[in-house]
From TrEMBL:
It comes from the Bacteria. This is DUF429 domain-containing protein.
């Protein structure tokens, strides 16, 4: 596995409205070494830009990390949407449903899905908390979690439910827009662990930038870095050369830069690909966050 990939691309994703998102940042690290480098779109990234890059311009044998949830919780209730007449057997069928219901929405938006009468009751959307936000139908707590998110919590992180659409730290909207992209990447890129990994070629994994920060010696509350000095200190912990610059830097950029270097460092660790709680059923329905072990 250590020699499997030639490039490591980390994508800090965003579910924000609009044609271009300030929260999207891409960084790439080469297996041959050197500091991670930001991939500049010139005028800022859109979700469609990222989709086009992954479909048409991705370097061979690239490990792609997407900072979003690649599926919704399933194991806790035995279904993504219990009490719903539509039964979805796996993550690709979930991606297809979301993309179909949002097919008329530009910029890979997913607002049509969370507003749909068959699915709104499963989300907390800022106006109300749906009656199915909790697994047992109660409106309580932080919502439902995947198995991998519970492992993240045990590692010291504070994950948020993909059914939560409220607050600055929510990941629901970004994950749903990302699932639209994953559907449109079918046949182009396999997604670990939902799909089988071939012996060669590029692969998409889910990442959580806080896990990279933990391995770089930072605590979860200090995962965000907003200066070159803090970033380069963390990169040094990962045995990566520093990036050029001093003073302030956008934390979306630092998330992408650090995580690209982290992917390069840990991709050869077989334990990262074989988490104890990753069963075949969980892989098929919920997926996993790379590095959650």
């Amino acid at each position: 596995m250590a020699d499997r990939f030639a490039h490591f691309l980390a994508i800090d994703w965003s579910g924000a409205k609009g044609p271009r998102q300030k929260g999207i940042a891409l960084a790439i690290a080469d297996a041959d070494g050197g500091p991670p480098v930001l991939v500049d779109a010139g005028r800022g990234w859109s979700r469609q830009d990222v989709l086009a890059l992954l479909r048409e311009d991705l370097p061979d044998n690239t490990l792609v990390g997407l900072d979003l949830g690649i599926a919704l919780p399933h194991a806790d209730c035995g279904a993504y949407f219990p009490n719903n007449r539509v039964l979805l057997p796996d993550a690709p069928s979930l991606w297809a449903l979301i993309d179909d219901l949002c097919r008329d929405e530009p910029n890979l938006g997913a607002n049509s899905f969370v507003a749909h009468p068959d699915y709104r009751a499963y989300f907390r959307d800022g106006i109300d908390t749906g009656e199915h936000f909790g697994c047992d139908g109660a409106n309580h707590g932080r919502g439902r979690f995947r198995v991998t998110e519970r492992v993240q919590a045990a590692m010291g992180c504070k994950p948020y439910s993909n059914f939560n659409l409220v607050g600055a730290a929510q990941v629901g909207k970004s994950s749903l827009t990302g699932m639209r992209m994953l559907h449109q990447l079918r046949g182009h890129l396999p997604v670990w662990p939902v799909d089988r990994m071939a012996q060669s070629g590029s692969v998409v994994v889910e990442i959580y930038t806080s896990l990279a920060a933990l391995d770089a010696g930072r605590s979860a509350p200090r995962a965000k870095m907003r200066t070159f000095e803090a970033l380069n200190e963390a990169l040094g912990t990962l045995a990566s050369p520093p990036v050029a610059g001093t003073g302030k830097i956008d934390d979306h950029a630092t998330d992408a830069l650090l995580t690209a270097a982290w992917l390069r460092k840990v991709a050869g660790d077989r334990s990262r690909w074989s988490p104890r709680d990753l069963t075949s059923e969980v892989a098929r329905t919920e997926g996993w966050t790379f590095g959650a072990i």
